Amino acid sequence: MSKLFEKYSHLISGLSHLSDEDSAIHELLLWENRERQLECFYAPFEHINKSAEIVLIGITPGRTQMNRALVAASHAIRAKSGINNAILEVKRKGSFSGNMRLNIVNTLNKLGYHKKLGIECASELWSTKNHLVNFCSLLKYPIFIKGKDYNGSPNPLKVAELKSLLIEGFSKDLLAIPETAELIPLGDLVADVISQLENMGLVPQKISRFEGKIVAPPHPSGANAESISLLLSDQYPEKEEYLEQMYQDYLRKRSWEKRKSGKPQSESKYKEIRASRWESMLFVRRAYGIDA
């Protein structure tokens, strides 16, 4: 039973009509670091699947996931389904919810996890096959920086409060999961943090490596749309053709006009960023035997 869930259950029971965009509830504030402009709020993401075969790891629950989890918890409390059942249901409904859900389902299917797990589609992990997966984040509770979703900066290992969540939360939760489970870090930042925790002796599970490097599929957030598109493509594009096509699309859309500077990136800088993503996704595809 979660002491925090029990502490906040009366307040949560009245939060049945939150929208995805609603601001965090001040009464659920766990701590704040004013110097870094960081805030941490409670949302019921404590459930751990102790029989999981794979572990999907994000950075931290965002605003959408937080609010959907609180709404799910509110409904569960009002239905008097019990705290443990409520927390389990919250984790299932709130994890990688919103637009991210379809991205992560497509990614897992592309990488063959549905076949590895003996299921028809990765979408089943949020329903009838939920027992096969543990959804979690490096930072268990929603973190915001300057009121916006935290995206990994500042480095979580270099801020005392964030490091505490990693060591006292994430690392201890891993101890409850079978050592045979496969950790799947979503994004390079998650992979880097897990690598550092592994060096500290805090990661007992196996992690996929290729050419000596941890393999990190892209995080399913909309910010990674380009990487996800590359990963899911039926035929991987030739590098130079891809860079030139992307650059011409960039010039045509003139998206830089919406920014404060009002100036486009240089061709070399723009293509450098695209090339990095092209190479990263080719690495992931090769690691999973897609472009062997």
What does this structure look like?
The structure is a single chain. The protein is α/β, with parallel strands linked by helices and 292 residues long. It folds into two domains: 3-217, no CATH class; 233-287. Helix content is 42%, strand content 12%. The chain is built from ten helices and ten strands. The strands form three sheets. Strands 1-2-5-6 form a four-stranded antiparallel beta sheet, with no helix packed on it. The protein has a four-stranded parallel beta sheet with strand order 4-3-7-8. It is globular, with a radius of gyration of 20 Å. The model has no long low-confidence stretch (mean pLDDT 92).
Question: Can you summarize this structure?
Answer:
The protein is α/β, with parallel strands linked by helices. Helix content is 42%, strand content 12%.
Number of domains: 2
Percentage of β-strand residues: 5-15%
| Class from helix and strand fractions | alpha/beta
| General shape | globular
What gyration radius follows from the Cα positions, in whole Å? 20 Å
How many helices does DSSP assign? 10
Please state how the strands of the largest beta sheet are arranged side by side: 1-2-5-6
